[in-house]
Amino acid sequence: MMPILLPFHKSILEEIHDPATSDLLILARGLGLRRTICTLMQIYDSKQSLILLLNASPEEETAIGDELGIMGCRRPGLRIVGYEMGKRDRQDLYKNGGLISVTSRILIVDMLQSDIPTELITGLIVLHAEKVTALSLEAFIVRLYREKNKAGFLKAFSDQPEHITSGMSPLKNIMKELQLRRVHIYPRFHEDVKNTLETRKADVIELYQRLTEPMEAIHHAIVQCMTITLSELKRSNKTLELDDLNVESAYFRSFDAVVGPRTKQLVGDLATLRRLLTYLLSYDALAFHAYLETLVASNTTTVTGAAKQHQSPWMLTDAANIIFSTAKRRCYVLTAPKPTSSVPESQVIDVDDEDAWAALDEAHGLTGSNSRDNGKKKEEKKSWVPDNMSPVLEELPKWDLLADVLQEIEEELMRQEAVSTRPPTRGTNTVLVMTSSPRSSTLVSEFLGEMDGTAPKGSRGRSMMERKLRTYLYWKGQNARQKQPRYQPPPRFSIPQPQSSSQPEGEISEALKRKDKTRQERSANRRRVRGGAPMTVAPSKPAVVDPKAESRDDGDDIAVFLASQPSDLLVSSDADALLLETLLSSEAEIDFDTHYGLLAPSQTVVVRAYTDDTDDQILAELQPRFIVMFEPNLDFVRRIEVYRNSNPGMGVRVYFMVYQLCCEEHKYLAGLRREKESFEKLIKERGSMLLPIFEDKHAGKSDAVIKTISTRLAGGRKELSTVPSQVIVDMREFRSTLPSLLHASGLLVIPATLTVGDYILTPDICVERKSIPDLVASFNSGRLYTQCELMSVHYKQPILLIEFEENKSFSLETVAESAKSYAKPTSKYPAKKSTGPTDSDRAPPSIQSKLVLLMLHFPRVRIIWSSSPYGTADIFNDLKANAFEPDPNRAIAIGAEEDTEAGAGINAAAEELLRCLPGVTAKNVKYVMNKVGSVRELCELDRKGVQDILGVEPGNACYDFMHRGERKTGSL
Question: Which of 56, 192, 254, 902 has the most CB within a 10 Å radius?
Answer without folding.
Answer: 56
